[in-house]
Every structure is written in structure tokens, then in C-alpha cells.
Amino acid sequence: MPAERPNPAYPECVTRLIEEFGRLPGIGRRSAERLAFFVLKSAEPDAMRLSQAIADVKRKVRHCSICWNLTDADPCPVCRSESRDASTVMVVEQPKDLISLEQTGMYRGTYHVLMGRIDPLDGVGAEALTVRELLRRVDDPSSNARGVRVREVILGMNADMEGESTGLQVAAELARRGVRVTRLARGLPAGGQIEYASKAVLADAISGRQEL
Questions:
Q1: Model's pTM, two decimal places?
Q2: CA 98, 99, 104 angle in degrees (round to 5)?
Q3: CB within 8 A of 21, min separation 6: which ones?
């Protein structure tokens, strides 16, 4: 069945705007039209602020060269901070997991973002993640935040099958390097997502982490 297209009576630039909104995840044709007309009815400075915010994100945001978190300055503020314990690195799947953990205010170490997880069904192996960069940080202190040697790696992956599989493979690599490996305590429910966990659950998971 062919996809619905915006009304051809719209001006060509409005049609393009609707089509671009329609590319966003979870946005159907009607929602795309509502967004387009919201922009049309907005004052020009308001609409241009949206345009500028999108442009700035694409031009300025990059991955931290140490931890792979999203940042507009390299290294990121967490890796630069003298108040963070750079000898402790928590490994997470995505930047949004890091944000959720930071909101607890309980963790004062640094992070490493894998940018995904191992999922053989989708053809994603360890080579597609930033595992190699994590191991480099462990092997070479000059590659870690502020040149500090890594002494503990906390596995903070989601408590589902793919997260567990990813954690086991990362742990196997780290075991050969003499670094302490722990994981978040089971304050996180099996099958749950860090992104949706409450601050209290995440705080318990951090404080009650266990040896692997």
C-alpha cells in the first residue's frame, strides 16, 4: 500500500517541511502536518531558534575522544573534571544511560559509552562498538581521563539478554588485564532499561554494585 503524501495543494516548501518532519521516529503524516503548521504560525524568531538549535547540534556536538559521550567540547566536562575519580570507569550502552545515572548524583567516577550493544541477530558484534577504545584506556593511562590509570571498571549495561551478553564479553577482555570488574547491583530489574529506571533504583544499583 503506497505511503500517504502531503496535500499537493500546499506550497512546495511546506510539503518539504512536512516530509522532513515525517522522517522523525514516531511521527506520522498528520503529526508531521501539525508540526509544520506550528512552525508556520510561530513568530519568525521562534522558528529560527529551532532552526539554529538543529544546525548547532549537527555542527558542534561530537563524541568525546576519551569516553565517547556526546559533547560540544573535547574532552567532555566529566573527563576534564578534577573532582571525578578517573580511576573508576562505568561502561554504559548509550549516552542517554549516562545522563540517567548522572541524575542520581551518586556516582563520581567517569564513563565509557559503548554506542550500542552486542546483538548477533542484528549483526552487531563487539567490533561495531567502542570496546577497543575502552581496552586502550585500561592498557594505556595516557588514553584515560587526565592520564590516570584505570583500577575499576563497572559494567552498567541494561539488565536484559543483550546487555548481559555484552557485559560478559567485555568482562572477559578485562579479566586478562588485572583490572577490578564490577557490575551494577540488581536494583535494576531483569529486562529493564536504565533510561526508564527511577533515581532511587539507579542510586541503589550504583551503591550496591558487585564483583563480577
A1: 0.77
A2: 100
A3: 27, 31, 32, 35, 36
Angle between helices 161-175 and 131-139 (to 10 degrees): 30
Sheet-wide strand order for 152-155? 109-113, 85-92, 152-155, 180-183, 210-211
Cell for 156?
A: 552498567
Cα dihedral 43/44/50/52 (nearest 10) = -160
In this structure, the number of other CB atoms found within 10 A of the CB of residue 42 comes to: 13
Q: What is the residue extent of each domain of the chain? A: 12-60, 80-211
For residues 116 and 173, the answer to whether their CB atoms sit within 8 Å is no
Q: What is the pLDDT of residues 109-147, one digit of tens each?
A: 999 999 999 887 777 888 889 999 999 999 999 999 999
| CATH 1.10.8.420 assigned to 12-60 | yes
State the angle between helix axes of 12-22 and 29-41 in degrees (0 to 180), rounded to the nearest 10: 130
152 touches 88 (CB < 8 A): yes
> How far is it, in rounded angstroms, from Cα 188 to Cα 194?
7
Pick the CATH number of 80-211 from 3.20.20.70, 3.40.1360.10, 3.30.565.10, 3.40.140.10: 3.40.1360.10
